[in-house]
Specification:
four-stranded antiparallel sheet; 4 strands; alpha+beta; Alpha-Beta Plaits
Length: 97
């Protein structure tokens, strides 16, 4: 298994879209809880949502992407772009997984 970071940036109207899809997104994430090592919103200095950071535990990048492909925030247009990178922890609680 490997860790993959998804750096998801919000698009236009994300505040409205987040509100529309929040309940569905939280339900979806709870149904796929075993795949998420961490997940949460990113905010700017004003406290406004600007994106999300997801850390997915998966066999490979394709499997990690499959976990996120049906996320209501992706399907619902909240995120305008997603960058995916493999995460290699060298310090902290995840280092010896």
């Amino acid at each position: 298994m490997a860790l993959f970071c998804f750096y998801c940036r919000d698009g236009e109207n994300s505040e409205k879209l987040r509100a529309m899809h929040l309940e569905e997104q939280r339900k979806w994430m709870s149904e796929h809880d075993e795949n998420y090592l961490a997940a949460g919103p990113l905010t700017n200095a004003k406290g406004e949502f600007v994106g999300s950071l997801l850390i997915i535990d998966a066999e490979d990048e394709a499997a990690a992407r499959a976990t996120v492909n049906d996320d209501p925030y992706l399907v619902g247009g909240v995120w305008q772009s997603i960058r995916v990178d493999r995460f290699e922890p060298v310090k902290g609680r995840w280092k010896d997984r």
